[in-house]
Amino acid sequence: MSGETDLIKLYSARILELASDIPHHGRLANPQASVKRRAPLCGSTVTVDIRCDGGRIADYAAEVKACALGQAAASVVGRVIIGCNLAQVTAARDALREMLKSDGPTPPAPFDGLEVLRPARDYKNRHASILLTLEAVVEAMETVRAQTTCA
To answer: How many CB atoms lie within 10 A of CB 130?
Structure first.
């Protein structure tokens, strides 16, 4: 019974609420970069579209096909991503990874809402899905930066 109780705690009301309300869900008409990431273990996918201005995200959309935990992570990211720069997004991704794998500190603001996913640290098979959105955004921002530098 304890395993079932743990799963019920993992899928808290707040996680389910976030999963059902993902801001900027969909695709951009003319993104500067699009990145699709897939978690091989569970099959979750996230496609992120971005437009940047001055090294910051000016427009963002994400198509999310993931478990409730991956959807909740995408929801938190979608609420705060506009205006962020690559250093902030990379720091959030790295901190989220450490929070899940090593019970590290909560990701820094404005991504501190990802704290809601701390109970997932004991479910290693869910980590990849939770990290998908931030990994995709980092890759997309690096793509935009490379294109801008080469232009």
So the answer is: 27
